[in-house]
């Protein structure tokens, strides 16, 4: 089996690492607009890996690269995922990506019929959230007879928080700001609703040394879940976990206009405030160093006539042995696994499908545990 990984940044590296350890994968094509970076990762990976230069915005280049492989993972910016989906359908190659933008995913879903007719499977949102959490929600909903409430709480954090924001960049700054500015899709009383980001604060207790954390609305994490479970689940929402104080600081920046994407005139020069903020965050936030991923998904409802709650919890740390951050592992490993599954027939359904519809939950959880991502499941 040959798999193409588009993008050789942090998430691309995590995906390549997992693919290299999978005996079903014979060759990994690592593609990046920066050939030197792709070659460096290929050299680090070993004999299974080959590097190639690829501009993910160029349809002709994408088609050439896709035609060489059985399956593709897009670990680049979500902005190329619509084009990648088109190319996957046209070349008859299966694909998954890390998602990150509701509008992009909706455009991908519109191509479902074309993908199905072409015998192609495309699964957006195969990272951590959305992705892993989507599969866990399905597992809980499938277990219950009737679901009342779903709460998804996820955060990638430094193990030792540092000022000024008690946060470091664990994935792209573009993706981070997106979460803080776009509407948050939820279910309220069984119907889809949209809530503002950076509000809805609550406290969430985790075991020491983390203690009491804050959680607040951010976009993207629930992705297609409200669409899938509209009318079937009463309430569903997603909130990001951070160390106390972070959310209110970001809310201030948001309200002051620093996350505005509209170009403004500053002494004769036009620039979007968001671009300035992104650049400053990349420059001034502390290095990520050792991180931790905290996850808690709670699914409440009824099993027959009895009230039941299914809770999934994950505390995953930076891997000292491999040097992979927890965010790389929990985001890229699911995508690498799914890329193999859609090529080897484990996932048989065709079309553009959200993860909660396509991915078998029990097998997914088992495979994550086999990779050291220990998802704990409790029923109360």
Structural notes for this entry:
By secondary structure, this protein is α/β, with parallel strands linked by helices. It has 14 helices and 18 strands. Strands 3-2-1-4-5-6-17 form a 7-stranded parallel sheet, with helices on both faces. A 7-stranded mixed sheet has the order 10-11-12-7-15-16-18. Strand 4 (71-74), helix 4 (81-91) and strand 5 form a beta-alpha-beta unit.
Please give a handful of descriptors for the protein shown.
single chain; 380 residues; alpha/beta; Rossmann fold; Dihydrodipicolinate Reductase, domain 2; 2 domains; 7-stranded parallel sheet; 7-stranded mixed sheet; 14 helices; globular
In short:
The chain is 36% helix and 29% strand.
CATH architecture of the largest domain: 2-Layer Sandwich
Oligomer: single chain
Low-confidence stretches: none
Supply the helix-strand structural class: alpha/beta
Indicate the overall shape.
globular
The CATH topology of the largest domain is Dihydrodipicolinate Reductase, domain 2
* Biggest sheet architecture: 7 strands, parallel
Number of helices: 14
CATH C-level of the largest domain? Alpha Beta
Helix content: 25-40%
Q: Give me the side-by-side strand order of the main sheet.
A: 3-2-1-4-5-6-17
Number of domains: 2
Q: How far apart lie the N and C ends?
A: 42 Å
Q: What percent of residues are in strands?
A: 25-35%
Give the CATH superfamily of the largest domain: Dihydrodipicolinate Reductase, domain 2
Question: What's the helix and strand layout?
Answer:
Layout lengths: L1 E5 L3 H12 L5 E6 L2 H11 L3 E5 L5 H8 L4 E4 L6 H11 L2 E4 L4 H8 L2 H6 L3 E3 L8 H12 L2 E13 L14 H9 L2 E5 L2 E5 L6 E5 L4 E7 L7 H5 L3 E10 L3 H10 L8 E3 L2 E3 L1 H12 L6 E13 L2 E12 L8 H19 L6 E2 L2 H4 L2 H10 L5 E4 L1
Parallel strand pairs: 1-2, 1-4, 2-3, 4-5, 5-6, 6-17, 7-12
Antiparallel strand pairs: 7-15, 8-9, 10-11, 11-12, 13-14, 15-16, 16-18
């Amino acid at each position: 089996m040959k798999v193409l990984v588009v993008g050789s940044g942090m998430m691309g590296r995590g995906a390549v690492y997992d693919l290299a350890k999978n005996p079903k994968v014979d060759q990994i094509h690592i593609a990046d607009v920066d050939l030197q970076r792709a070659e460096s990762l290929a050299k680090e990976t070993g004999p299974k890996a080959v590097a190639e230069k690829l501009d993910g915005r160029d349809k002709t280049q994408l088609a050439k690269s896709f035609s060489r492989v059985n399956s593709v993972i897009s670990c680049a910016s979500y902005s190329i995922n619509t084009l990648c989906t088109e190319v996957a359908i046209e070349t008859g190659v299966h694909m998954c990506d890390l998602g990150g933008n509701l509008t992009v995913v909706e455009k991908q879903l519109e191509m479902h019929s074309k993908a199905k007719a072409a015998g192609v499977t495309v699964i957006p949102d195969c990272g951590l959230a959305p992705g892993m959490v989507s599969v866990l929600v399905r597992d809980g909903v499938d277990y219950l007879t009737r679901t009342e409430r779903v709460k998804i709480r996820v955060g990638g954090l430094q193990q030792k928080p540092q000022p000024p924001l008690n946060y470091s960049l664990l994935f792209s700054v573009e993706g981070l700001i997106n979460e803080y500015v776009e509407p948050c899709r939820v279910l309220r009383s069984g119907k889809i609703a949209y809530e503002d980001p950076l509000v809805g604060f609550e406290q969430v207790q985790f075991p020491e040394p983390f203690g009491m954390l804050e959680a607040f609305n951010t976009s993207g994490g629930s992705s297609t879940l409200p669409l899938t479970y509209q009318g079937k689940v009463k309430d569903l929402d997603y909130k990001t976990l951070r160390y106390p104080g972070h959310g209110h600081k970001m809310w201030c920046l948001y309200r002051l206009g620093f996350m505005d994407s509209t170009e403004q005139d500053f002494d004769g020069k036009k620039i979007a405030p968001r671009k300035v903020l992104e650049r400053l965050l990349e420059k001034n936030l502390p290095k990520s160093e050792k991180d931790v991923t905290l996850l808690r998904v709670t699914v409440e409802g009824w099993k027959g006539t009895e009230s039941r709650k299914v809770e999934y919890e994950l505390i995953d740390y930076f891997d000292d042995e491999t040097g992979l951050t927890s965010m790389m592992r929990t985001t890229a490993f699911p995508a690498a696994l799914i890329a193999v599954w859609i090529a080897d027939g484990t996932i048989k359904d065709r079309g553009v499908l959200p993860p909660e519809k396509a991915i078998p939950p029990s097998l997914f959880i088992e495979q994550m545990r086999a990779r050291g991502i220990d998802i704990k499941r409790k029923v109360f």
